[in-house]
Amino acid sequence: MDFEIENPDQMDVEELVPKPIHREPPRIHRLDEAVVNRIAAGEVIQRPVSAVKELLENSIDADSSSISVLVKDGGLKLIQVSDDGHGIRYEDLPILCERHTTSKLSKFEDLLSIKSMGFRGEALASMTYVGHVTVTTITKGQLHGYRATYKDGVMEHEPKACAAVKGTQIMIENLFYNMSARRKTLQNSADDYPKIVDLICRFAIHHITVNFSCRKHGAARADVHSVATSSRLDAIRSVYGVSVAQNLMEVEVSEDDPSSSIFEMDGFISNSNYIAKKITMVLFINDRLVECGALKRAIEIVYAATLPKASKPFIYMSIKLPPEHIDVNVHPTKREVSLLNQEVIVEKIQSAIESKLRNSNESRTFQEQRVDPSPSVSISMSKESSSHPSSSGSKSQKVPVQKMVRTDSQDPAGRLHAYLQVTPSSQLQGSSRLASIRSAIRQRRNPRETADLTSIQELIREIDSSCHSELLDIVRNCSYIGMADDVFALLQHNTHLYLANVVNLSKELMYQQVLRRFAHFSAIQLSDPAPLPELIMLALKEEELNTEGNENDDLKEKIAEMNTEMIKQKAEMLEEYFGIHIDPNGNLSRLPIVLDQYTPDMDRVPEFVLCLGNDVNWDDEKICFQTIAAAIGNFYAFHPPLLPNPSGDGMQFYQSAPSRSPEGGDASKSADDVNKDEVEHELLLEAESAWAQRDWSIQHVLFPSMRLFLKPPTSMATNGTFVKV
C-alpha cells in the first residue's frame, strides 16, 4: 500500500501559528496569617541547630550561669534547653510565643544601642509553628514554677503550677512535623547533632563565665561539658583539647580613630606547629556569634602565604565596636552583621595576624623524647660487650639472620629500642629534660593537675614522697585477670600473680585525684536535691542498731541538726574547692566528678554527708582539706554494692519465703536449688545489674586510671592491699 506524504512547504502557514489565549492577570490576595507565620518560621528555624542557637542566646540574655542541652534524633524528636537565669514572669506567659513580643526593645531606635542577643521576638514564635513547645519556668521568690504549652504562637491552656528549679526549661518536640519535605531532607542528611555540639563549643569558649553541657538523650555522659573559668585559654583547652591550646598565640588589635575606624579585637590564632585539615574560625562581634566571609578569606590568604603547605588555622576572635557602628538586623537568623568601615577593620586585623605569624615562623618547635632502654636490652648489651671486647673496633659485625626479622614479640632484639642509640640510665635519671617531658605528659593526661594553695601542694608532695617504687611498677605494668571475690582482684605482673584489694586501691586513687583536681571539678547534678537532715538521719539509723524509744531519736535529730548547720556554714568553701553544692536551705544538689566515666554508688550519699559533719577537722586548713578529700575518696571508692552478690550463697537472700521440710524444719537449700517462683525478681535484677556494673567499671575505668594516676603509698606494701600468690 502506498502512502502519499504531504509536502510541509505546502501546508497552511496559519495552521502552524498558535492562536493566542486570552488570560486575565492573576489576582493579588492577602495570605492567611497562619501561612505567613509558617513561611517566616521556615526562614528563622532552618534546621535544629538554628533552634538551639536561638535558645542559647535567650538563656545568655537571661543572665544564666549554667546552660544544659539535651538532644534526641539530631533535634528532630527533642531539643531541651535548661538554664538557671531569671526566668519568665507568670503574666508574660500568655504572649510569650506570639510574634514580635520581646523584652529587649520597645522602639526601632533601640536597635542602635542593642546589647542583647535577641531583639525581634520571632524565635519562640517560629518554633511553635514548626514544633510542639513546652515552657517550664520559675522566677526568684516564687514557691513553685509554671508549665505552659504552645502551638502556632498561642498558649494552648492556662499555665499549670509545677515543681521547678531556678530558671527556664524550653522543650521542642517533633520539629518540622508539619513540613514533610524539610523533615525528610533532614532525616536523609547527616545528623544535626555534630553541628549542635560544635555550636555549643563555640559559645563555651567565649562565654567563659557560663557552664555549658550537651548530651544525647539516653546517654550517661555529656559530649560537651565546660565549667566557668577566668582564663580564655583554659576554656579552649577544656573544650578543644590540649593539642589545640598549646599551639595558640594571643593577638590583639585596636583602633581609636573616628575618621577611619573604632574597634578592639582580642583572640587566639594557631601557630606553625598546629596541623588541621580544615579551618576552625570562631568569631564574636559584640558578643554575638556571627560569620564574616571577607575576614575569613583574608585570614586564609595570610596563612596560605606565610605557613608551609597552606596550613588550616584555628582562629578565635572577639571584636568590640560601638553599637551604632554595627547593624545586627541584616539576616533572618542573625548569622551575619553589617559593620561600618568593614574593609578597614579587615585590613588591620589581617596585617596584625600576618605580622604575628611571620615573627613566630622564624622558629618551629618539635617534640623530642629520649628512649630509656629496657633492663633486658641493657643486660644483653653488657653481655655482648664482655664477650666481644673488640666490638668497638672499626670493623662492623655481621648481624645474624634471625635478628634481622622480628620472629618473637617478646624478644628485646625485635623491639625498636634495640636499633636506637641509647643513653645510660644513670644519665637519664639526672636529666632534667626527661623530668620535664614526664611532667608535660602528666599535664596532657590531666591538664588541671595543679593547685595554688600551699596546703594542697604539701599534701601532693607527701603523696609523691611516700610512693612505693616496686608497687608503682606493679600498678603501671600489671595485667588485669578478673575478680577473685567481692573485694580482691587478680593481677599478673611479669611471672607473678597478686591479689589486690580494689576498695583500698580505689579509695587511695580517689583521694589523690581529689587533691589534684582541687578547685577544678566538673559536676554531677542530682535530679532531686536531697535535704541534709534526712540524709544524716538515714546514716545514723544505719549505724545505730539499737533504736529504743524517742530519746534516741531525739538525740539523732539533734546530731543531724548540728551537722547540717556546720555543713551549711562551709557550703561556699565546699562548692569552690570540691564541687559540692549545698543550697541555703540545706539541700545537696551537686557532687564532684572525681574520675571520668564513673558515677559513685548513690546509696552511700548519707554515709558521705555524715562523714563531712563528723570526721572533718574544720580548724586547720591542711587537715581540713585532707579529711574532706579522704571522705570523698571513701564515698567514690569501689565498695561492694549494698545488695548481696546473687552469685553463690548470696542467692538465698532473694528468696521470697523459706521453704519447710516435711518434718516442719527449715530446709537449707543451695543457690542452685532455689525455686524460681520464690525469687524476688526485681530485687535480683537490680543486684545483678549493680554487681555487673561494678565489675565492668573495675576493669575498664579503675585499672586504666590507676595505671595513669595512682602513686601507691608505702603503707600498701604491709597492710594487705597487695598479696603475692
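That was protein one. Protein two is written in the same sequence-then-structure order:
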Amino acid sequence: MKGKREKSAPGSLAALGHKPQSFSIPIAANMKSVFIHNPHTRSQHFSASRVFQSPLESDVSLLNINQAVSCLTAGVLNPELGYDALLVGTQTNLLAYDVYNNSDLFYREVADGANAIVLGTLGDISSPLAIIGGNCALQGFDHEGNDLFWTVTGDNVHSLALCDFDGDGKKELLVGSEDFDIRVFKEDEIVAEMTETEIITSLCPMYGSRFGYALSNGTVGVYDKTARYWRIKVDARSDRTGEVIFKDNFSSAIAGVLEGDYRMDGHPQLICCSVDGEIRGYLPGTAEMRGNLMDTSVEQDLIRELSQKKQNLLLELRNYEENAKAESSSPLNEADGSRGIIPANTKLHTALSVNLGHETQAAHAELCISTSNDTIIRAVLIFAEGIFLGESHVVHPSIHNLSSSICIPITPPKDVPVDLHLKTFVGYRSSTQFHVFELTRQLPRFSMYALTSPDPAREPLSYVNFVIAERAQRVVIWLNQNFLLPEDTNIQNAPFQVCFTSLRNGGQLYIKIKLSGEITVNTDDIDLAGDIIQSMASFFAIEDLQVEADFPVYFEELRKVLIKVDEYHSVHQKLSAEMADNSNLIRSLLVRAEDARLMRDMKTMKNRYMELYDLNRDLLNGYKIRCNNHTELLGNLKAVNQAIQRAGRLRVGKPKNQVITACRDAIRSNNINTLFRIMRVGTASS
C-alpha cells in the first residue's frame, strides 16, 4: 500500500494495536504534531481540542503537541486497559496518550529531554515502563507517570531497545549513545559494553539474546550478546549470515520501519515510511517465493559479482601453478621474484611500540613490520575499527623507499583494545606479483601511554585508592597485556610503582602497588581512572569493588556547574512566571480592544493594539532568552549526569549502583556537600 505524500517529513513511526477492530500508524512529523492513520475507523470523530480530524482524509487524525517531537512509540503501558497507548517525547516533556478515548494518561516534564523511547518490562520491575533516554540520563515511568527507574549513561542517548540479553527470561535495556558505545543495563547496573565506530542510531531486538543495530554512517549489523555476528552497509538481510534476501528502493530516505497487522487479517506486515510521507507495506515471502524475492537487477548484480570472484580465483590458481612449476625446475632468481615467488622460509615479524614523536610528528603508537630476509614490503593494508577514516589504511611506499621493514604510526582516539587486521604485500623490487601475508595483531587498551621515570614534582594530586586480593605478579601480567612496555622492562615484586605519560596530552599516570594488595592510581583524568579500574575488574574477575577517590580540580569544576544549574533553574522559573503573566495580560487587552472596536472608539482600540504589539515583542524576546537558557541548562545537566556516571565507573558491582543512586538523591535534595562525599568515599554517611 502507498500513503498520500505529506508536506511535513516524518521523523519516526509506531504501530497502535491490541484493540478489537483497530490498527493505527502514528507518524511523528518534524513539526509539532503527530499524524495518526487508521484505515479501519474512517467515520470516527474526536471532540477534544488535542486531536483534529482532517475533513479531506477521514482516516488521518492530527495530534497537536505544540513542541517539536523527538521520539515516538506505542504499546501496552497499562495492562488493565488491555490496549496500546501512544508515547510522545519532546526535548522537555513526555506525553502518554490514550488515542481511543482521546485523553492524556499523563504528561511529565523531563529535564534531560527525550531523544529515544522504548516501552516494556525491565528486569524485576513488574509494571511496564515507558523508558526514555536523553541528556546522558535514562528514566522509566509507569502508566500513572511515576518515576520508577533512573540511571545515567556515558553520553547523549540516541537509541533504546529491550532484549533478554543474558537469557534469564527477563529483559535488559540496550542503550546506544553518541560516544559510539552500546551499553547493556540490568535495571540500573551495566553488565556489558560494546564499542562501535559511529553513533548508534537504532537498536532492534530480534530473538533470544540476538539484536540488530544501525550506525549513523549507514552500517548495520547483528550481535548475539557481546559477539558481533556480522556488519555491513545496508536492505533486508538474514540475521544469521548477513545475506541480502530482499531489496526495494524509495524515491527518498527512509524515516522508519515497523512490523504490524495493518490489514487486520492476523498476518503482520513490514511497514516502511519515507521522509516524503510515502508508506509501503510488505508481506512475508512464502517458502516457494524464498528464492525469488530479489528482483532481476539484483540477481544480475549478484551473478556479475560471482563471475568476478570466479575470474579472480582462476587467476590466483594459475599463479600458484606457475610458481610451483618454477620452484621445481630451477633455483630462485630475480626473474622468479618478478612472478611473486619468494623464499619458502620467509617470515613476517610485527612489533608494537611507543614513539615519542618529534617536532614535525606528534607522539603515537607505532606498528613495525619486517621480513626475515632481503625481500621488500611493497604495501600494507590495515583494517581496524575506530582508528582510521573509513576503518582502513593503506601504506604504499614509493619505489625509491622500498625496504624489508616499514613503520606505521597509529593514534587510537579512545582507550579501547583494537584488532589490527593486516595484509602485507611481500616480494622483490622487480616483482609484478606479490605474496600476501595476512595476520592480526591486537593494539593494547592503553597503548597511548609511554612508560617514563617518576617525577615527584609532576605527580598528580588526584587519586583512586582500593584493595584487591591479587598477587603483585598478576598485576604485572595485567600491565604487560594493557600497556606497550619496552622489552627490557623489569618490574620488581611489590611494593613498586610505574609511571606513564599520555601521548595525547602529556598527563601523568602513576600506578602504585603495596604488599597488602592496596593499589593507588594517581591521575587528573577521571575517565582514565575509571577505564583502569574497569579493565582491572574484568581481568581479575572482580564482582564488587569500593574505592576512595579524590579529584580536586574536577570536583571544583563540578561545583561551579551545579551553581550554574541552580541559577538557570531560577531564571527558567522567573521567565515562565513572566510569560504566564503576559499571556493573561494579552487576553485582557484583546477583550478591551474588541470592546473598543464594537463601541467605535477607534483611538482606544488603536492604543490597545499598540500595547499588544509591544507585549508580543516582549514575549518573543523572552522566548529567545528562555530558549538560550534552556540550551545552557541542558549542557550543564549533561555535565552533572556525566559526573555521576564517572563516579560510578570508579566502582564495580553493587558499590557502583549505590553511588549512582545516592548521587541522584543528593542532587534531588540539593545537598552538594553530600554529593561530593559520595563521589569520594562511595557513601553519604560519615
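Residues 1-10, 43-57 have pLDDT under 50 and may be disordered. Keep this in mind for the problem set.
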